[in-house]
Structure formats: C-alpha cells, structure tokens
C-alpha cells in the first residue's frame, strides 16, 4: 500500500472530471442558501453525513471486493433523482478512464466492459483504490473527503471566497470526515456477510430537488 496513491486518488487534480461539478453549491448560491463560509460549512457538513456517507460506503464495499455490478445497482437505488444518477455515471466514466490509465486492473476492465456508459463514481473509486492496494478505509476516506472538497472548491469560484477560508473549513471538518469514513468502512465489512442492505443509504432531499432544478438551467458555470 502506498499513501501517495491515496493522495493521488483524493487529489482534486486527478483527471476524473470532478472539477466541473459543484456538488449542489451552485444551486444553493443561487437560492442564497450559501452566501459565506459559515453557510458553506453547514452545506458541506450536511452533505458529508448524507450523500458523502453513502458514497463512502459504496467505495469501501467495492474496495472490499463486493460484486461491483451489484454495488452499481445498489447505488442506483440510493440515487432516486435522474439528474444525479446521470451525473454519477458521467463522473464514473471519467474516473474509469483515469483509473485504468493510473492503476491498471482486470477488475476495472471488466466493469468498464459491463457498464460502457459508466458505473457510479464511488464504485469506480473503490475499485481504483483496490487496484492501488489501498484499504477499504482509504477508499471511504477518499470518497468522504471528495464529498466536501468539491463543493468547497466550487464556492471559491462562485462566491469569490477566500481560498484560505475554504481550507480552514475542510480542516475543521477533518475529524468528521474520519468518523464518516470509519462508519462506512464498518458497514462495508458487514455487507460482506449481511448483504448490501448493510451499506448506508442516507440522502439529502433538498440537494436532490435542487439538482433537478439545476439540470434544467440553460446557463450555468458547473455541470451539476
């Protein structure tokens, strides 16, 4: 296992397309629900403990060795909004391209062949972590961190927020990221014996609603 591989997988500059997505922040800024670092922190915390936890569980389960096709179906069931399912598969397709070039593996190849339109992004992320000899906990950490780092980075552009404020926000949430990752890792371990129903299925209805609204905008800075 290489910690450098974990840093690479969690790096926002990893060419997996995440930079083009705001994680719901663009719609929240338009509604004035996010307007400063405090309101951004509230959104990120809520996202971390809902969609972030769910993504972390899926990523950890993929890294554990659960069937990725069954996990992809489970991800579909946990993503009720068509706009977000499309985004998850688009990001999965982009991450698959980057992951296969960076961490070649037959498991990634098989999933790419079975899901040519893209598997859900956390599943690909978990298989990439497995290919890099990282642990399920590492995969969960990467997914949990991404659930808040993307929105924080987007807010810097959308609000002209001081990048130092965004970095402080991520640092304040670091212990919660660890706790979410640990819960996801535990759920993934139980899923191996109890079934995929043991994985988290937390959701954020408001983010779901605004994602559908955002998808209908004719002019937007971010894809989602």
Automatic annotation (TrEMBL):
InterPro entries with a match to the protein in the record: UreF, UreF_sf
Tell me the compartments it is located in.
Cytoplasm
Q: Which UniProt keywords apply?
A: Chaperone, Cytoplasm, Nickel insertion
Superkingdom of origin organism: Bacteria
Specify where it is mainly localized.
cytoplasm
Task: Name the Pfam families for this protein.
Answer: UreF
Which HAMAP family does the UniProt record give?
UreF (MF_01385)
Q: How does it assemble?
A: UreD, UreF and UreG form a complex that acts as a GTP-hydrolysis-dependent molecular chaperone, activating the urease apoprotein by helping to assemble the nickel containing metallocenter of UreC. The UreE protein probably delivers the nickel.
Q: What does this protein do?
A: Required for maturation of urease via the functional incorporation of the urease nickel metallocenter.
Q: Which family does it belong to?
A: Belongs to the UreF family.
Report what the protein is called. Answer: Urease accessory protein UreF
Instruction: Please tell me the species this chain comes from.
Output: Streptomyces chisholmiae
Q: Which gene encodes it?
A: ureF
